[in-house]
Structure of DM2 domain-containing protein:
Amino acid sequence: MATGGNPNPNANPSQPRPPHMQQQQQPGGSPATPLTHLRPPGLAGSPFQGLFHTPPSHNPAFQIHMGASASPQTPLMAAAAASAKRPPQKPPARPPAPTSSMAAGAASAAAAYKAAAAAAAVANSGGVDLTPAARRNKKRKLPEKQLPDRVAALLPESALYTQLLEFESRVDAALARKKVDIQEALKTPPLLQRTLRIYVFNTFANQGPCTIPPPKNADPPTWSLKIIGRVLEDGAELDPASIVPKHNPVYPKFSQFFKRVTIALDPSLYPENPLIIWENARSAAPQEGFEVKRKGDKEFVANIRLEMNYTPEKFKLSQPLMEVLGVEVDTRARVIAALWQYIKAKKLQNPSDPSYFMCDPQLKKVFGEDKLKFAMLSQRISQHLGAPPPINLEHKIKLSGNGAHGSACYDVLVDVPFPLQKEMMAFLANTEKHKDIEACDEVISASIKKIHEHRRRRAFFLGFSQSPVEFINAMIASQSKDLKLVAGEANRNVEKERRADFYNQPWVEDAVIRYLNRKPASEGPGGGAGS
């Protein structure tokens, strides 16, 4: 932009300029650089509206610097600056030092620009909204193991491979269904009732006659109490020569059937530790039996208390409820189900209000009411359920005779998991590990990638052989388009940018002001250092 000239060549030179276009004299008498304020573009019809608005700032680059005037700024000039409502233009050079009039002018210009920005935002609210360009739809990636139709047309032998893939998908679907069925079955595993035989006996050592004086370095007399259990199998014969049969790994170990085991010794003979307690919750690993070893040469009776570990938990029914259902120990769910079957069989449900049932004389002994709501059944039944009774055993520790003495057997009914449960869990664990299948899939995927690469090379050379000129031109155009996309110039039109009309659009002035305001203060409008 020329300095000292008229920016509008069509304007009449004799007409007076507005106050913001007039030159002001510097103290030296030479005319100062004119401050030409560009008119803000019409934003309503521009597709670039809202993109070049710079927020107001107190940076010196956005202030209007007036030349050092002999008289301070008049109120008329401040009012004219406030009513301009357009962003300021950066001067070509920074003045040496600000004055009070310059500070007042900068404050008024900032307020004016803020009002102009707010007005432009309100005016543009109904304009054209800029939306991001729609993304190009990516090509759907084919599965790594599947051959496309173009490759299948070139390789007739690939039909057999496609059939194998379909067969593999059917096998995978069948395995997935079976896996889900097994997982559902393992959530509520079926239980079988078996007989647990408990063997209780004791052994002893160094229980010879006492001699006076006792021999030196002789081992003290000791005894050992052993409690071992085995699950009996139907139709299995026991070896009469052995006291305890071998453990079957299909069934749980002996300690898993009990929650707590308590062994009470004679407190007069063992006052320090007469009570021995084992708890399943504190046990690190299941055991096949228990053994208690002590020093002593006197016989006594040991009391053994076994508390069963039921899964799910079982309860002992009260006497009135036991008379109604005919069971002594059972789970809460089975007790409620048995009560419902009893009410259904006796037709005790109230026909007018199905949420209630009538109590017959047997149920009156249990609940003490003539009728009861079904929703209260689970709550009212809790007072009739207690802890199952423990198993109390007595064993006399004998310290004479040969071998194990006082051997006794006790049979207890226990619930054991279904024998195939471990095999089902092992099957699920094996299905999770497909190392061989994964290795084969990797080989197949690598082969498919090679086939795709050879197909692309074949298509390249085939297209070149059929029409070399058209093929090269199409390839150059494609590469040029890709290069523009990478460089971010896909939306540019070089031919339009060469025309002068391109730079006469409404957004150009605002873009120039934004560009000048973003440049460092030490540079002039031409890019060099300010004078």
